[in-house]
Amino acid sequence: PGHHQIVLLEDDGTEIARYGDGRAGFQDGAANEAGFNAPQGLIAAEDAIYVADTGNHAIRRIGLATGAVTTLAGTGRRGLPHKVRSDGAETALASPWDLELNPKTGEIYIANAGTHQLLSLRLEDESVAVLAGTGAEAITDGEIKDATLAQPSGLALHPSGGLLFFADSETSSVRALSLGDAPSVKTLVGAGLFDFGHVNARIDKARFQHPLGVAWWPGVGEVGRLLVADSYN
User: Fold this and answer.
1) Are 154 and 97 a contacting pair, CB within 8 Å?
2) Relative to the CA of 48, which of 141, 142, 160, 206 has its CA 20 to 30 Å away?
């Protein structure tokens, strides 16, 4: 984020491409002309890289065929809690921190940390809707209309496409959003807004301190695992 750029590398570290002119800005266009502002998260598809352009409160798309950068959602200004589905170009986001792509539904999931919400950007029409979070800062499980979050910052989609894990940083928790017919939020590890620690134990007793990232690790056979970047520990 400090260079306001996205860099594409080979496995051995050889640079393939660089997107962004290196200055903080909010500008679409060619790879060497586009402007980002402290991007924090991204997700790649076969034809594009999608970027959580945190400082610009926007979601950007880098077309891999041309290198061109376009804005899918965000106005460049910080927004209030999201309520109803709206056009991405007219939707003010708030510190989007991480992204996940669900290829089965054609959606980009957004950790909209600044409003304590998870959002969905539908690629078909570039519209934005609420996935979970009322906008209040708390740790309430249950149906999505009632669930409250606290600065969701990292996302990981289960390979089934039916479960979205997220690091809910201000509650030092790791939580999961089910994406089925009756979507709901469940806390896996964590207890409250001011409950944190460095405790190894079963998930009902374990504690983190301001985790910022999660990733799904397929593991061996049928057993997968969730990896957590426990930042302040």
Assistant:
1) yes
2) 160
